[in-house]
Amino acid sequence: MTAPLRIGLIGAGAIGAWHARIVAERRDAVLAAVCDSDAGRASVLASRYGAKPFVDAVDLFADAAPDGVIIASPERVHGEHARLAAEAGVPMLIEKPVAPDPAGVEAIRAVTEAAGVAVMAGHVERFEIGSAALKAAVAQGVCGRVVTVAARRQFVAADTPRFRGLSTTLRILGVHDFDLVSWVHPVPVVEVYAASGRGRVYEETGLDDHVVTTLRFADGAVGLVESAWTLPQPYGVFTSPEGWSPAGNNRLDVFGATGMISNDMSLRGQQLIAFDEAAGFRAAGIRHQPILHGRVTGALAEEDSAFIAMIADGTPPVVGLDDALRAVRLTEAAEASLASGRPVRLD
Ligand SMILES: NC(=O)c1ccc[n+]([C@@H]2O[C@H](COP(=O)([O-])OP(=O)(O)OC[C@H]3O[C@@H](n4cnc5c(N)ncnc54)[C@H](O)[C@@H]3O)[C@@H](O)[C@H]2O)c1
């Protein structure tokens, strides 16, 4: 048996903690190091899994010499962390969005290509079974010529204040679906038009409450991406049952000349719900990080498996920087449209 891969993590926040647990639960990898600019967060997460804590990523690469690194810091510092990984010759998984803008993705591509270091983009929806099965069915021509691709992603705005001034609704939520829609219908987008509804979330955090983006594809098809925090709080804020993550109101529909394909993950299609007198109605999100027999499974664990395979076997990344760039370009165009109130043409 070969020695377990030593994985480093940069960013011990919400998603970093999930990656840490997933890596620690694997047999072929260990969590060797955790870096966070917040020393307390780094040491709490590192000590949970027997990893070494760092507050500076420079020291993580110098002292821990990981075989791979998961970059789950905020996107504004992904470029700096990717550069350090490239200089250390360490393959990396970079959370979405890979960078705040296309120039940032290009810069990451330049340093990693120059160093010959493999990069995977953390677009977790690619590992969601329904999304992947829908993509395969569209590619088989099941709905004929594609006319419309519609994606909705709606959550409770429970944890959004941490993004104030640091990110946007389209970078947090929209980028998932810009990638998904372009993956399902891989035709260039020629026009992007976005409009937002602003309410309580905007007042409290500066994030748009609900953004509706339309995409016009070069072949005449249309895309619709909804990115929203407008679910009522009780739907997604609960502490019982223990271990349940809240569900969103998500769906992905493709309508074509001769048929339709729909992956319904929406309010009325939730698979697992609880309803009791003490806490009312709750729905469990069981797509991305469900716990099965005490271990994290689901799309995020599959994403980390693909990353481990990329390091161990040289398997090409399932999601690469071209995909990341396409999604970030669409995000930037939608943000430009929001700012101007006009459609944005793309070359
Ligand atoms: N795939 C998904 O579904 C998903 C879900 C959540 C977040 N994300 C992405 O992951 C990234 C992190 O998001 P989050 O929600 O975990 O944020 P978070 O704020 O919860 O965590 C970010 C962590 O990074 C640390 N940090 C900030 N600057 C740093 C630096 N220079 N060096 C080291 N650590 C630093 C912060 O102290 C914090 O602990 C974002 O790019 C976000 O878009 C992806």
TrEMBL record:
Gene3D superfamilies hit by this protein: Dihydrodipicolinate Reductase, domain 2, NAD(P)-binding Rossmann-like Domain
SUPFAM superfamilies attached here?
Glyceraldehyde-3-phosphate dehydrogenase-like, C-terminal domain (SSF55347), NAD(P)-binding Rossmann-fold domains (SSF51735)
Name the domain of life.
Answer: Bacteria
| Protein's recorded name | Dehydrogenase
Q: Which residues form the GFO/IDH/MocA-like oxidoreductase domain?
A: 133-261
In which organism is this protein found? Answer: Kaistia geumhonensis
> Taking every annotated instance into account, which residue ranges of this chain make up the domain Gfo/Idh/MocA-like oxidoreductase N-terminal?
5-123
Q: Which InterPro entries match?
A: Gfo/Idh/MocA-like_OxRdtase_N, Gfo/Idh/MocA_Oxidoreductases, GFO_IDH_MocA-like_dom, NAD(P)-bd_dom_sf
